Amino acid sequence: MRIPGSPVYLDASALAKIYIAEEGSEELEAALLDRRDLIVSDLSVSELTSALVRRVRETELAASHAQRVYQRVLRDVTAGEFRGAELTSEVHREAERLLMSLGRQVALRAADALHLALAGLQGARVLVTFDRRMGAAARTLGTFELPV
After folding, report:
1. How many alpha carbons lie under 13 Å from residue 7 in its C-beta half-sphere?
2. Which of 2, 24, 126, 132 has the highest count of CB atoms within 10 angstroms of its CB?
């Protein structure tokens, strides 16, 4: 995997690959190694937390492991491993604009629109996602480069 530009916004699906060993994790980690231009939003952290809890509920992950992963994510975010992106009224209005403009072309969910808005308003040139719908929306929008 090659990540073509800078800065780089990581959605929850990308963040999950960093913190939970799954298909594509090693390749993504290698592509991100030593980068200092990574943007992560609290929305990504909340969505990752939801995914951890779902995996515990479905007995794919031990609760103690999920707790350790969650604590590690919080530690990395607060230590400045990532540049933060916060949900603001401006982000919500931009997400709503994207929903209105792309909604007829792509099945864009509200959270995906928020990620696209966060990335755009933070000046990200690259969007890393493993979510097909979000990738389709990003391609339709044409604003971001996607990893190759």
Report:
1. 18
2. 126
Task: Say which residues have a Cβ less than 8 Å from residue 114's Cβ, sequence separation at least 6.
Answer: 41, 43, 87, 91, 92, 95
Distance CA 5, CA 38 (A): 11
pTM of the model: 0.92
Measured torsion, CA atoms of residues 77, 81, 82, 86, in degrees rounded to the nearest 10: 30
What does the pLDDT look like over 103-115, one tens digit per residue?
Answer: 888 888 999 999 9
Output phi, psi for 127, to 5 deg. Answer: -120, 120
Percent of the chain with pLDDT over 90: 79
